[in-house]
Fold these 3 entries.
Entry 1:
Amino acid sequence: MNSDIEPVSVAVVGQNLMTHAKSFNPNAKRGLVVELFPAIYGANKHMSARGISKFLKEKHGIKLSAVTITKALNDPKKSWNQFFDTIEPYVEAYENWEKSARRDDFLFDDEAFKVIKFPGREFVRKHLLKFAFAQAINVLREKWFSIDLVVRIEARSYLAERLLGKKK
């Protein structure tokens, strides 16, 4: 036993452990694996989970274990659904603005999305509601359209299954 450690009761050890545990954000890594899932999914075609974990740590200082990555990859339906949860409010805001947009089409049409131009500041000042549309465009560009098209097309079946489940 380490002589530098002061003896304490089991109750005190338990209290200290709980206090320490509460200082961590338990969803931090889960959120990160969800945000990175499309890239992890695509990278997994060429790299192992261990390689992805090593790359993230060495190149970006992100500690995401191979076990966490493997868990996400082993249940792609769940992982894609969690990712879709993060962008769905923005997809809905976009659909509310662009009435002709159909989710299962526009999310896979890079060219159509690229030509969308936000109407401009003057227009926004007159129509405060339009902020949600601008935000949706920015988020979708960053989180969805930045994903490799091949990966998005592979995700299409998961999105289609999700949409069918919501219609029931």
Entry 2:
Amino acid sequence: MAGRDRYEVILAGSGGQGLVLAGIMLGEAAIADGRNVVQTVSYGIASRGGFSQAEVIIDRAEIIFPQVEKPDIVLALTEEAFEMYAGLAATGTRIFYDATLLPNRAGPNWSGYPFTRMAADLGHPAGANIIALGAIAAATGVVGVESLVRVMENRFSPAAANVAALHAGAGLIGGGRG
């Protein structure tokens, strides 16, 4: 996936997991990388605990239609989100899921990592979304990890805990891109 001109990304889970913020930061990092971005959100009536989703389209060209039509990457932080998008793995969509909260799955294009456990271990329990962003960036090249670091340094003060979470997520991939 690295080096592609266009990415369509869905970040899905439950309200309160920081998915909207993660989508905004992903978009800001893509802009820093010189890309065009559209980011949309949808969530249920209950903002905390109800279904929540952020869609991000990143492209070198102008983005005409602002909705994800064929996602390249999905982050599923709840069982509901995983079940909603699991079938896309067969069409080539890379699905990242939280192996702390969901049962382990084996299949093509499914990547489970313990985002929530890692966040707790880092003493940053709300940082699972940041760890996931680091893993996704390192695995796919959708944005540069260093672009995400700059976004976090501009957004958070102090940024050290979030930058550490981002690097922990990138470290799950071992520096390579899959």
Entry 3:
Amino acid sequence: MLPFRSGRSHRGSTLFALILITAVGLVANAGRAKDTKKPKPKSAEKNVSDSSASVPIPIGHEAKGVTLPDYDLEGRIRGRFLAGVARRLDEHHLQMRDLKMHTFTAEEKPDLEIDMTTSILDLKTHVLSSKERTTVKRTDFELTGNSMEFNTSTREGTLVGDVKMKVFGRSHFGQPEAE
């Protein structure tokens, strides 16, 4: 007997239609579940700001050509470390040579560029320090000094010893530029 005359085909198509409707309903519900955002638990926020856990270099080892992002509590990038060589000194300290650090504004646009020959980043306090000549650049100025401490969280720093500053675009200050 042919399948469509026995009724087996009708039962199979009904079962197929039920499965299809159920699958479409599950997909629609999954799409709605993605749209509703749940607040992050406090433990997840703590993990974002814990820099020591995010550095993939074991204690006592060094890595060449390291790029490390630095995120705030909301998950926005606030800085990027580009180190020629990075060495993990202990659980909370990372030594970097030939470091270029780029900072970003709250809108995630480039802001400062900090060049250090050697530096140490305290992963617990987020303080980057160097006892060698350091240069800080932005589109409107360039600042150099013999040593520096820079807090990557608060974006506050201190340059000490033979500090020099070049300011670009003096017309912004209301003074005519020299010819």
